[in-house]
């Protein structure tokens, strides 16, 4: 969960992620939350996601984080740097929700297109078990994750 004082637009939308977590909980998956290292005790996140276990150690120790990424059926990320630890790992699977913001130069559609990353397409370096989900809703991200996991829907 991203909770940071820089570029708040990139922070995790708790209601968005709560819907996804509850969906998988209903399917009897265990859902774990790795809090933002810079705001590990974010009370808002902890209150709204209190039904799920928080893995503080994984926020602080990179080897633990990577181990969890590899064990998980699928990892979900907001647009954050920690997503790369999963995205660059062929033993991991992930869906990253990337939201463009045209009022922020480094998050605008123009920026991504100018650097050679077409908005709406997966990063070229990702293997098949990783997906960038652009600007969508919870149903779409769940659909992408279910493809990775192998859930027919």
Describe this structure in words.
There is one protein chain. The two termini are 26 Å apart. The radius of gyration is 15 Å and the shape is globular. It has 153 residues and is α/β, with parallel strands linked by helices. The longest helix has 13 residues, at 14-26. It has helices spanning 14-26, 43-48, 56-60, 62-71, 83-87, 109-114, 138-149; strands at residues 32-33, 53-54, 75-78, 94-98, 130-134. Helices cover 37% and strands 12% of the residues. 26% of the residues are buried. The protein has one domain (8-149): Rossmann fold (3-Layer(aba) Sandwich), CATH 3.40.50.
Layout: helices, strands, pairs:
Elements: H1 14-26, E1 32-33, H2 43-48, E2 53-54, H3 56-60, H4 62-71, E3 75-78, H5 83-87, E4 94-98, H6 109-114, E5 130-134, H7 138-149
Parallel strand pairs: 1-2, 3-4, 4-5
Helix pairs in contact: 1-7
Please tally the helical runs, counting DSSP H or I stretches of 4 or more residues: 7
Give the strand order of the largest sheet, numbering strands 1, 2, ... along the chain: 3-4-5
User: Biggest sheet, in brief?
Assistant: 3 strands, parallel
Q: What is the global morphology?
A: globular
Helix content: 25-40%
User: What is the terminal separation in angstroms?
Assistant: 26 Å
User: What is the CATH topology?
Assistant: Rossmann fold
SSE string, helices as H and strands as E:
HEHEHHEHEHEH
CATH class: Alpha Beta
Structural class category: alpha/beta
Contiguous runs where pLDDT drops below 50 for at least 5 residues: none
The average pLDDT is 91
* Name of the CATH superfamily: Glycogen Phosphorylase B
């Amino acid at each position: 969960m991203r909770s940071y004082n820089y570029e708040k637009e990139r922070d995790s939308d708790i209601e968005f992620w709560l819907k996804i977590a509850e969906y998988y909980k209903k399917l009897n998956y265990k859902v774990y939350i790795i809090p933002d290292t810079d705001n590990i005790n974010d009370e808002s996140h902890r209150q709204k996601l209190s039904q799920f276990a928080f893995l503080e150690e994984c926020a602080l120790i990179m080897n633990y984080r990577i181990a969890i990424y590899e064990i998980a059926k699928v990892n979900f990320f907001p647009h954050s740097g920690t997503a790369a630890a999963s995205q660059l790992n062929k033993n991991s699977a992930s869906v990253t929700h990337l939201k463009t913001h045209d009022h922020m130069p480094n998050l605008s559609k123009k920026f991504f297109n100018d650097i050679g990353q077409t908005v709406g397409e997966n990063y070229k370096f990702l293997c098949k078990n990783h997906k960038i989900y652009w600007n969508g809703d919870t149903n779409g991200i769940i659909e992408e994750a279910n493809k990775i996991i192998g859930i027919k829907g």
